[in-house]
Amino acid sequence: MINIVYRLKAPKFFEEAIDEIELDGVVVRPTYLSICQADQRYYQGSRPAEVLEEKLPMALIHEGIGEVVHDASGEFGPGDIVVMIPNTPLGEDVCRANYSYNSKFRGSGFDGFTSDLIKLESSRVVRLPDGFNPAVSAFIELITVAYQGITKFSELAITPKDTLGVWGDGNLGFITALFLKERFPDSKVIVFGKHLENLNLFSFADGNYQIHNVPDDLTIDHAFECVGSSASQSAIEQIIDLINPQGVISLFGVSEYPIPINTRMVLEKGLTVQGNSRSEREDFIGVVETLKQNPQLFEYLEKLVTNVCEITTLNDLKEAFDIDNNSNFGKTILKWNK
What we know:
The protein has helices spanning 37-43, 49-55, 134-137, 140-156, 171-183, 196-199, 232-242, 263-269, 281-293, 297-301, 314-325, and strands at 2-10, 13-20, 26-34, 63-71, 81-84, 87-89, 103-105, 118-120, 125-127, 163-167, 188-193, 207-210, 222-225, 248-251, 272-275, 305-311, 331-336. With 338 residues, the protein is an alpha/beta fold.
């Protein structure tokens, strides 16, 4: 089957390419996609030059849903709405597939979802229930990143979970705080951020503080760092100062450069530092089930949908990336009409 793929050839320059896909898997037509900061780093050319040279041209986007066109196995029917899993295991490993060097990730290791059709293995799609908000469903992948980190935290934490701190007032911080409150309703979830206008949107949290205005006597049991970039350093420093002994620090933020950590205090307090990246099928199933059982979560997640851009041309795609780059909060959703 003939397919058209829309690849980033160079920063801020997309091109069309004709490809062909076999009908031996699940063929999905993308309907709603979501731009991630990782996509923006490629589009803006802010990744190191050697990385751009190695990976481009490449189709971007790893967050999205679509409509099944064909499934050779018959497990999915035409018209089924599914969320697409970007992580692609390529062999057995002793660790989870989202941490395995034997896995490839769409929009990073190979083409993402900006094409007319996507072919996936049946294990790389999860059917969505009827009635799910499609714009919110487009970034279920991002929600699964928080979900898998919270799941690992639940297995690691040995001290009380009375007070949980989330650093970061952006999209991932919002999702992490929301799902922490759903998972641990009796715990206090406190958010630490820089932008007051963002913090005011965390209405479900038990409290929030601007990072420069934290009470001297405040302590937390466990922390979730959702800041990223060079700002991770100051966030981690503040976390180590405020966290109680034997707490868990869950790291989610991505930085292009090494971030120093005060290991002396990590040792003194007996802290556990847990890295979190990407997700796997069980996390997608868990998020879909959580949203199904708790539909009120959509009311909060809808606050993250700040732009919905209809995409019919490559220029529409470029304009959507430019709009997204000018937003410091929320998700830009692509209504994919290609």
